[in-house]
Each structure stands twice: as structure tokens, then as C-alpha cells.
Amino acid sequence: MAILVAENLKKFYGEYETQVRALDDLSLEVERGEFVAIVGTSGSGKSTLLHMLGGLDRPTSGNVIIDGKNIGELKEDELCIFRRRKIGFVFQSFNLVPTLNVYENIVLPIQLDGNKVDDSFITKIINLLSLDKKKNSLPSQLSGGQQQRVAIARALASKPAIMLADEPTGNLDSKTSQDVLSLMKVCSEEFSQTIVMITHNEEIAQTADRIIRIEDGKIVKGGE
To answer: Which CATH number applies to 2-221?
Structure first.
């Protein structure tokens, strides 16, 4: 069953002869529990697509449906709440709060939503990502790989319908990148977590269950 559906997505900037078609009538489906990599060169539209799928930007036309909800029908405040509850984001810049320790960073989205923290689930994530000895450490006391693992743990903590990762290993060396990707794969399998990852790195993309290739705002391979 598809957890994520994009229908005829278009995102145009400008008009007439200067118009840029970042997404040009793009459609795709991602099944529940699937780990998908979206690859393409710079300017192919892959980051624009991720922003549309995550509700960070709105398409010129078309629909994005996550867990049965058409997010284009939501008002801005409703969309903000939906993102926090249903979508986990992992960026290459980590985006950790420097004054909060590892545990506090991980549970922050849950607390912002006013929900009770499922400590047993959080402990399971922390142990799986080998962060158990770093729970009380500040981000500045962690390596890049450890910070990215915290970001992954935070994205998983609220049990989102889908996790979107934008070049999650972009700031990591090759060895650490492989470690982080392996852990993402394990998390996908352990928690039946759906992951959509943007990357320009072909080797990293091979970690995924399916590779979708995008060029000039269109899917050219793997969209079926």
C-alpha cells in the first residue's frame, strides 16, 4: 500500500521564455516501509521534489498525498502540525539545537507537540544508533557522524509516516557516510520506516530498495 503519492506535480518559476520547469508533470508512489533513493545531477529537480513531498513548498499544480491526506488542502498552521507529526526530516546540516543534549534534541519535536515521550521506543532508537553513551552530550561534543545519527533518531522519534532525507551524508567522509546509511537501512527494516532519500552519490543510492532517477524535472527511471 502506498504511503506517499505524488500526482502530476509541477513547479514552475518565472514565465514565458525565462520560465524554469523545476518539476514537469512528475508522478510517483512509495510503498509503506520502502527505502527509496532519488538521484539526479545538480538542477535536476530532486531537492525541489523533496520540498514538495515534505510540504516545505507548494507545487504550481498537482497533489501530494501522505498517509491518505492531501497536504495541499491543508492551511499553513495545519500543514505545520501535520509535518511535525507525520514527516521526519534529515538534512546534511544536522540542525541540532546546540544548547540541548542528545536526548533533549531527539525528543524535542514530541515535546513541542505536547505529547508524552515513549521512553522505551526512544531507548530502542538510541541503542540501535549506538548513542547510548552520548545521551547527555552536547552536539559540540560529537563527531559529524554522531550528530547525523542524532538527527536520524530525532526524525524517527515521533514515529512519522515517512522520513525524508536530503543529502544526509553530504557533510560526512566516505567511511562515516556508509555507516550512517547502513544505520538508516537498519532503521527502515527495524521500524518498518518509509524513507525517501535525495542524493547525487550513485554509490550511496545503492543502499536503497529502489532508485528513482530524475532529470529536468521528470522521472526517467525507477518511478514505476
So the answer is: 3.40.50.300
